Amino acid sequence: MINLVWLVPFLPLLGFLVNGLGRRFLSKSLVGFVGSGTVLAAFVISVLMFLEAKAPGFTPQVVTLFDFITVGTLHIPFAFQVDQLSALFLLVITGVGTLIHIYSTSYMHEESDESFARYFAYLNLFVFSMLILVLGANYVMMFIGWEGVGLCSYLLIGFWFKNPSYNNAAKKAFVMNRIGDLGFLLGIFFMIMQFGTVTFPEVFAKAAPLGINNPTLVAIAMLMFVGAMGKSAQIPLYTWLPDAMAGPTPVSALIHAATMVTAGIYMIARSNVIYTLAPSIQTVIAVIGVATALFAASIALKQNDIKKVLAYSTVSQLGYMFLALGVGAYSAAVFHVMTHAFFKALLFLGSGSVIHAMGGEQDIRKMGGLKKFMPTTHWTFLVGCLAIAGIPGFSGFFSKDEILANAFANNPVLYVLGLLGALMTAFYMFRLYFITFSGKFRGTHDQEHHLHESPAAMTLPLIILALLSVFGGYVGLPEVFGVKNFLATYLEPIFAQSAPFATAHHLSHSTEWLLMGISSALVIVMILLARGKFAAYEETGKENTGLAKVLENKWYIDELYDAIIVKPLYELARFFRDVVEKAGIDKLVNGIGSGVQWGGQKIRLVQNGQVGFYIFAMVIGMIVLFVIGFLL
Amino acid sequence: MPVQYYIFLSIALFCIGVMGVLMRRNAIIIFMCVELMLNAVNLLMVAFSKMWADAGKIDAGGAQLFVFFIMVVAAAEVAVGLAIITMVYRNTHSVDINILNRLKN
Question: What pTM does this model have?
């Protein structure tokens, strides 16, 4: 079965080719069928491979397709690696991806035939790139996928390319990702320089003897983390992700939930040996993670665009994952990636369902009372909110609790900050929930008339994701419940190599119960607080002041970037265009041309037709030549 | 006779030739002055040839052969040049080079 692993990325690629090339003559139903079908088939194969990888004693298998790059002593094969980590990611990507594809067939139905096919082609290509990213058996392969998702996110965010502001959002995502990618690329170059290889086992084998905090490893770890910052939207490279909401909602769901933004977490979890050996960078990761978690959560408190709230919540949740990576709890990070994929996809698709019903309206202040119009969306959305808020029993609770417990074991300050973020998460998610679904309807009369539950192709994925959001957490049931943590045990071989270098922290079970109790109780308090404040929300039209205004404007970070980076760059570019290019280079080049022309005009007069003058010139020339010959 | 005499005579002849070419306007005289320069050089060659041969350094024939070669070339050139001048005269009734500027540019 493992030998067929190439089929997993190949099928979406096939879907991309069919839909992309046949976009002018394929019907919508055929396009939808090809688009979703190829990913579904990839999912089925992934399940089979996951079952194989789950078996005890499974060793990572590398399937080499062909020799990709051979330069001197450096060999980079085009190979896929199937192990516990990649099998799990395959499952999440293709699984959630399939649901989003199916959902899209209905959500995007109003597009023209050609746009519809183009959309599915991009979506397939996105899944293909992400699969290459997680399947690649070396860092170069990973980088190919890494760039691939970057390109596809650009294409998809700017899908409605006739709108200039959407194009700008796409460009912003692309450029910010490039900044991060440069870091990753330099990391790979550094790795090639130091180790002469990019294949995972060889790199780890050569890294391990270097010892803790070796400068080379620290540099590689930091450079690669810059890449992760860009892709996974961490401070300071996070501003592209909320803007990425310009794309169609299922795209947001795909980017935010299963693919792209989790690439950074995957990369660091994959490179756990390098990071464990560089504890100083781990500290950086933990601090940036927790800072991002808090910062983005604070912004989400005051956003009024339904998708923006979710976007900042993603940034914040990614911060949690980096916190987990930073404290060395790699399996907790992967666990949260998984549960987050479920509930964030659910929330985004739910918001898509709401937007669909509202006829494109995204401002939650103009919604309200949607509970009775769209029951399925309402219930599944509620499940998503409960899961992300971390209510005991839902998937988000287990993964977030594991992260917080690990943070506590590492450093109580990280725990307190993380908990604060979790409380904000509960508050803003239920603010969103109550404003949208309870109270009375605040939109226009037309919209109210139009309100309807979405078709089955949209609600079915919602229901499946809701079930996953509830039960997905049970694969990582912590040991305090008296069972073996399945996920941690499953992933153990991946992190085995770094385990000897990690400083182990162990919490007593009573501490863990206590932490769980505290966070659960506080989360419930936050939800009740949000209920009291927003259950009967009325739009006052009053402008926010003070801190609320700052939060509503996202701490003015975009403006800050604009002032300190974008504007100076524009000025620099203008300087180069006007002064260096036009006044310098152009003047020089044109000057040489016109100088020659002028000279020619003048020298032409020498040919005056006077034989005597010609002879004179000849004699003078001869004399000059004689003199030169004599002097030299 | 020392070779210097020949050299001075040759320089004098050459300079007269150069001046004639530069200053005269009659094409035929310019032609003759060119011949004068050629002959100045020929004289020099014969003189040097004789000098080296007397000193027993080299075979004397080489430079003298060149003299004949130059004479042949000059004769050929004169044949073409005089023909051109004749044609020019037929068309313009003048051999003044200052009016022969039709080919300019």
Answer: 0.80
